[in-house]
UniProtKB/TrEMBL annotation:
Natural source organism: Roseovarius aquimarinus
Protein name: Helix-turn-helix domain-containing protein
Lineage: Bacteria, Pseudomonadati, Pseudomonadota, Alphaproteobacteria, Rhodobacterales
Amino acid sequence: MAGKIYKRKKRGAGRFVQLPEWVQASEAWATLAPGPRALYIELKRRFNGTNNGAIYLSHRDAAAALNAHRNTVGPWFRELEARGFIYMTQGPHLGPSGIGRASVWGLAEEATPDGRPARKTFMQFKNPRTISVHGRHINEDD
């Protein structure tokens, strides 16, 4: 027998996106809607291990990757930023030749290439707990 056929062209499993358990167990992730979760996974997919703080992703590219409208992904970016999962290192601008440049993002769960530790700001997120009384939302702290 010459060898196992199913292993002939196998050269590795390919790239994958790792989402650690401690991120998924955080309150910020548990209360996050599916759209921003998908956007975070897309940003994480573009992270190669050394480019944190230099992840380029425009609203149009994110919309195309997630099969959504470009006006829909804007609030998803803001939601991820507000909860502390991502941070903008450079805003969108026109380049020297007048061609637009996309926003540059960093992941708060990863360390930066210059040696700074991970920010992990999403771990401080506290969900504003509200209870419903007769159709109104009342804060528990009151």
